[in-house]
Every structure is written in C-alpha cells, then in structure tokens.
C-alpha cells in the first residue's frame, strides 16, 4: 500500500445555479455550495485522515471549497498548491451563456455534442480530451509522486478536471467517462498501490445528487 489521494469537486457555484456555462470564468460558491463543502468536510473528518498537502485550481470556487474543507477538518495550516492545470474545462465561446440560450443559438444536438462528447471542443474551448491533456501530466509529475511516497493528498477541483483523473484511476473508457457525473462536495478517497494502481476507492457521501 502506498499513499492516499482524495478528490473533491467544488460546491455549487453561482453560475451552476443560474444554468450558465462556467469554464474558466470565476464565480464564487452559493450558500448551498458552502454547505456542500462543509458536508464534505464532515465526511472527511469521520475518516481521521491527516493531509500532507493540498492542490487546487486557479478558480475561486475550488479554492473556497478547499478552504472550507480545511477549516472543517481542523487542518488550516496545510500547504496548498494552486495551478491552472486543474482548472475546469474551458468552454470557450459558450462561457457565460445560459445553456438554454446556447441550445437556441446552435441547436440542441450540437450543444449536447459539445457538452457530452469526448473529443469535440466548443468554439474556442476545450474538449474533455483536451482537458485531460493538461490534467494528466500535472497529476503524473506533481501529485502522484507525493502519493507514492506515502503522503495523503487532497485535490479540490472541478467536474471535468476531476473526470479526467477518475478516467485513468478507474480505468474508464471514453464512452463511460462522458456519462459520469461527479457530485459536488462529495470526497472520493483512493488508496493507491506502489505501482500507482488503485487498491481501494470509497465515496464519502451521496452520489445521487450528481449533476
């Protein structure tokens, strides 16, 4: 057995609530998002895990989720590394648009392809494959070596940057990963073997609220 990796998707943001494409835009958490982060912290507290380091994106919704979790588990002095490699998928021209307005402009089918295909990016933006192309190298060089040294590592990030990680950790196909929704504020605890494969995975909460 090697170390432990915990992944948490940020709580609901103001733009999630308004049904807007967010991407690299930087809205804060809603009151519900704050509560989701606190609930995730309670679940983590119950495990008794002590973190060595935390990683998050350059976006406030992930950083604030991380702050709330660290407060909730009483580990506020933790070293935190922020990097845009962990940012949400860039939605390009869709960012800031209401999802219904986007469907009116480009059509239901085209918007569905942009949202749910693996390798078709929206105009000026990234596909899930593109997102993985920046998340995976960062994981391999910055995060994984610490876990393999036996450290306990917390990552607070976004739906698509975390889906990219879950895809390789869980050995999911392109077809499987595009159907996967990660619940907000719900920690996923991975224990890794020395060869970086997954020894065990535990989801600490209600995955039924994934959206």
TrEMBL record:
Q: Which PROSITE patterns match?
A: PG_MUTASE
Q: Where is this site: Transition state stabilizer?
A: 158
Keyword RNA-binding attached: no
**GO MF terms held by the record:** phosphoglycerate mutase activity
Question: Organism's domain of life?
Answer: Bacteria
Q: Name one GO biological process term.
A: gluconeogenesis
Give the annotated active site: 10 (tele-phosphohistidine intermediate), 88 (proton donor/acceptor)
Q: What residues does substrate bind to?
A: 9-16, 22-23, 61, 88-91, 99, 115-116, 159-160
Keywords (alphabetical) are: Gluconeogenesis, Glycolysis, Isomerase
Reactions catalysed according to its record:
(2R)-2-phosphoglycerate = (2R)-3-phosphoglycerate
InterPro entries from the UniProt entry: His_Pase_superF_clade-1 (IPR013078), His_PPase_superfam (IPR029033), PG/BPGM_mutase_AS (IPR001345), Phosphogly_mut1 (IPR005952)
Give the E.C. number(s). Answer: 5.4.2.11
The pathway this protein participates in, as annotated, is: Carbohydrate degradation; glycolysis; pyruvate from D-glyceraldehyde 3-phosphate: step 3/5
Reported function: Catalyzes the interconversion of 2-phosphoglycerate and 3-phosphoglycerate.
Q: Subunit composition?
A: Homodimer.
Tell me the protein family, please.
Belongs to the phosphoglycerate mutase family. BPG-dependent PGAM subfamily.
Report the protein name in the record: 2,3-bisphosphoglycerate-dependent phosphoglycerate mutase
Name its species: Hoeflea halophila
